[in-house]
Amino acid sequence: MVTLDSLGHRAGARAFVDAELTPYAAEFDAEQRTPPRTLERLAQSGVLGAVVPTTSGGLGCDLRAMSVLHEEVGRACSSVRSLLTVHSMVSWSVLRWAEPDVRDRWLGLLGRGEILASFCLTEPMAGSDAASVAATATRRDDGWVLHGQKRWVTGGQVAGLFLVICRTDRGVSAFLVPRDVPGLCVTPVTGLLGTRASMVAQVDLDGCALPADALVGPDGFALPTVIAGALDIGRLSVASGCVGLLQACLDASLDHSARRRPDGVALSDHQLVRRKIADMATETVAARLLCERAATLKDAGDPEGTTAVFMAKYFASTAAMRAATEAVQIHGASGCSDGSDVARYFRDAKVMEIIEGSSEIQQLVIAAAAYRGRSSS
Ligand SMILES: Cc1cc2nc3c(=O)[nH]c(=O)nc-3n(C[C@H](O)[C@H](O)[C@H](O)COP(=O)(O)OP(=O)(O)OC[C@H]3O[C@@H](n4cnc5c(N)ncnc54)[C@H](O)[C@@H]3O)c2cc1C
């Protein structure tokens, strides 16, 4: 198991990100795509296989190490971090829940980043309420047949493998669907508010025939098993990416406020600006600590880990939105211009309050856990 210490790594991740992502993130955003050469670099660096064991070509990170990697990537580019998020969710699901043959078939490809994976839960009428998925998987003698439509599939434009959540006669189940299966149709979604380079797609499944072992995890019980586990990874990844976003907002605001002197006095000398900086700096550290706590609890298999991940995601995403709003404010008109980094952070931060469970859903879950704790104390 690779830990933060053995990975070495905030510094290593930062060097990679500064060379491969930071200079190009605005271009990716404008072109609404992460180019193949960047995906190749991500694969070569091992970042795509962060949660995959070293025996399958991955980095074998624990969640603390993954969180640091995804924070560093999120500091430069939320779109690329989103691609890592869904790839990690699917990789983890294959590792944890796929049949041994199926796991061996896919895990090396995922770990080495030779294919990208996407997670397909959301539908036109199923978003926050995952239990209401309508896509179907019908059992037949030699396997399954899938029908339905999945929306907002991050990385769907380039994914080679999809983890698709469907309803069977036993309940909600998860299936591994290769891109080349007949009946699968991918339609790019463009013009998004944020994470514009995350290559989101709509995925239609029209009679996709799959072998019996395409089922991942227990038939009918994917919600408390595969989906819950994958979403834990996804939320921690998004929360960690939001810490990166917070840091990026803070760094940009420090630079700009020290340089800009509208009335002969640097912005950084005004107390009202300093208050914004103080809030950003404090919330960045608080969000980072919540992520570290959540990852540590999850790594230890502590049952408190899931609530800790919800708290980290809720706080980090809302704090990122506050920081991005103030970063644009500090930058004035230049923060509203096309290609401005802080404008991109602002658009990306809004998306973070919606994906992997909206802030309202996080609040409901955190409050329910608090009441449970009260009744059991
Ligand atoms: C850029 C982007 C990428 C995405 N990538 C993926 C992906 O890879 N895979 C995937 O499966 N999905 C993905 N999604 C979908 C995302 O997970 C959903 O948008 C999210 O779960 C919310 O669902 P919804 O949009 O249907 O909103 P709805 O469920 O319709 O909710 C709308 C609003 O109502 C609020 N609300 C809902 N229920 C309650 C309640 N009980 N109490 C109070 N308020 C409530 C919500 O908080 C939200 O503010 C992505 C979305 C975006 C924007």
Short description:
Its EC number is 1.-.-.-. The protein is of the alpha+beta class and 377 residues long.
Written account of the structure:
By secondary structure, this protein is α+β, with helices and mostly antiparallel strands. The protein folds into three domains: 4-111, Butyryl-Coa Dehydrogenase, subunit A, domain 1 (Orthogonal Bundle); 117-216, Butyryl-CoA Dehydrogenase, subunit A, domain 2 (Beta Barrel); 223-376, Butyryl-CoA Dehydrogenase, subunit A, domain 3 (Up-down Bundle), CATH 1.20.140. The protein is built from twelve helices and eight strands. It has helices at 4-7, 10-20, 25-31, 36-45, 63-76, 78-97, 100-111, 223-259, 271-299, 305-331, 341-352, 359-376; strands at 117-120, 136-140, 143-153, 161-168, 171-178, 184-188, 201-211, 215-216. The strands form two sheets. A four-stranded mixed β-sheet has the order 1-4-5-8, with helices on one face. A hairpin with a 2-residue loop joins strand 4 (161-168) and strand 5. Helix 2 (10-20) runs parallel beside helix 5 (63-76). The longest helix is centred in the middle third of the chain and has 37 residues, at 223-259. The protein is globular, with a radius of gyration of 21 Å. The chain starts with a helix and ends with a helix. The protein binds flavin-adenine dinucleotide.
Cα-to-Cα separation, first versus last residue: 36 Å
- At the third CATH level, what is the topology name of the largest domain? Butyryl-CoA Dehydrogenase, subunit A, domain 3
Shape: globular
The SSE order reads HHHHHHHEEEEEEEEHHHHH
Q: Give the names of the bound compounds.
A: flavin-adenine dinucleotide
Percent of sequence in beta strands:
5-15%
- In CATH, the architecture of the largest domain is Up-down Bundle
CATH class of the largest domain: Mainly Alpha
InterPro entries: Acyl-CoA_DH_CS, Acyl-CoA_Oxase/DH_mid-dom, Acyl-CoA_Oxase/DH_mid-dom_sf, AcylCo_DH-like_C, AcylCo_DH/oxidase_C, AcylCoA_DH/ox_N, AcylCoA_DH/ox_N_sf, AcylCoA_DH/oxidase_NM_dom_sf
Domain Acyl-CoA dehydrogenase/oxidase C-terminal: 226-369
Domain Acyl-CoA dehydrogenase/oxidase N-terminal: 10-114
Family: Belongs to the acyl-CoA dehydrogenase family.
